[in-house]
Amino acid sequence: MIDLHCHILPGMDDGARDLLESIEMAKKAIEQGIHTIVATPHHLNNRYENPKLTIIDRVRELNKVLLEEKIDLNVLPGQETRIYGEMVEDYEIGEIMPIDNTEYVLVEFSSGHVPRYTEQLFYDLQTKGLIPVIVHPERNQEIIERPDILYKLVEKGALTQVTAGSICGDFGKKIKSFSLQLIDANLTHFIASDAHNTSNRPFKMREAFDMVQAKYGTDMVYLFKENAELVIEGSHIYKEVPERIKKKKFFNIF
Ligand code: FE
Fold it and tell me: How far is the CA of 163 from the centre of ligand 1 (A)?
């Protein structure tokens, strides 16, 4: 299994603090059945800055250590890019790191909010050949309240990634229900861990796929796992026609 979103690189953000923690995470990943992980450190924050070349260097170093430790996990470079106005310009100067240099780029919204310029920025990114993948939309307050925002972005070609822990209920009942509604409405395309450590933000991939298997069956599990593989191959992924989440249905659930 492939994990497209994980904070496994040591000392780069709020994920693994040092190499020992990275190795611990790598071992857990193997236990989960993960053979390939995309390391996606946060790009910019007031505490850290992780441009493309730094990430590529650190991934190379971590893979070397994993080889020495005989841990059979392949780490690929990626980035969790907080949306900002100059993303296209910064992509062109080599600041932004799409998933393993494919066309897929992980985009995070500031918590609780979707900037008004998102639609235009996504259009501009797509014009440059990139496909924005919105990470954990199920945890964004504005999207929870107005799921049509997400529908419109997906309709125009954006993809989304739900976090495994959300499906397992780690972020509460509401977020779990909303995650399942996103799957029901074809509004999500990937399940990834967004693991930060092995304690309070672990992988939960196996557990999430067990849930998906129980609720939707094997085909849905296969679709999500296959989509992650297609991303790494740089191929087009499977997409069903997105549907609107009806307000009535939405409120009934809570
Ligand atoms: Fe993340």
Answer: 9
